[in-house]
Amino acid sequence: MLNNEAPAAAPGGEVIVYESSDGEVRVDVRVDRETVWLTQQQMAELFGRDRSVVTRHVRNAFAEGELDPEATSAKFARVQSEGGRKVSREVDHYNLDVIISVGYRVKSLRGTQFRIWATRTLREHLVRGFTVNERRLAERGLREARETLDLLSRTLLNQALVDETGQAVVGLIASYADTWRLLLEYDEDRLATPPGARSSTSALDHDRVVDAIVEFKRKLVARGEASSLFGNPRGDALAAILGNIEQTMFGEPLYRSREEKAAHLLYFVVKDHPFTDGNKRIGSLLFLLYLNQEGVAHRLNPQALTALTLLIAESASSGKDLMVRLIVNLLAEPRR
Description:
13 helices; Four Helix Bundle (Hemerythrin (Met), subunit A); about 55% helix; two-stranded antiparallel ribbon; single chain
């Protein structure tokens, strides 16, 4: 049975209802400061003892030096009925250490049950709190990172401290800073296709790709921008990449959208080096070839595409998913 007291809402605290396994006891437990709190009256109800018994055991635990009263007790506001009206009073509460001590002294089985429940509840509460705080820190970190990127890009560009390629890298990162925030919202285990992405309709033909590379090489060599090593294949690596982006799992495409396939195509060519030379330029060529075949309009100019391939080339292997999702979001049509 409950008394006429109820915990008042307080910042930083949370109230969780505990009910004994036999259903005879139900108390409002305050969770605060990484522990649980009960009043003496609540402990009396929990353990099925008179309040005077609980008061005596609490005093003995403090007097014997078993517990420090300053560390294990605190005052919290509680709303109680007095003369037919509700009044908020500061009432002494005791943490889990005191509750366990009193439960042991009165030899209460409910004390053991409550300890098990409280331990589990605290663990869940701490994990939930950590997750929330971790997300807040991550979001704050993204805001600070964006501010830093904005300052960095302005300084580098205004002071002419980077060449054209460097300006393209800075511009890509600064212009698409919002995309990095979007990445935070993706669940690694449930990678959703961004708004605007569409299913692919065709696959790149190997012979067509080879012909495009040969023609690309001819033009570059003629301009003195490539050597005879440019575009020479390493075994069947190119065929493996083209097959990889079209692979299926349980009868469904592994990469469902054209944007995902284009992103993986660019990433694999740049990172896996299927050619003896020219992987970044050839990766960009095949990327654009596939986008054109699929009719994908995009916002990447030549400088931005160069910057993107440089980012991929410099990225760690562990950052593959991050880079692929960035490319997908750069390609996906903006939400209407």
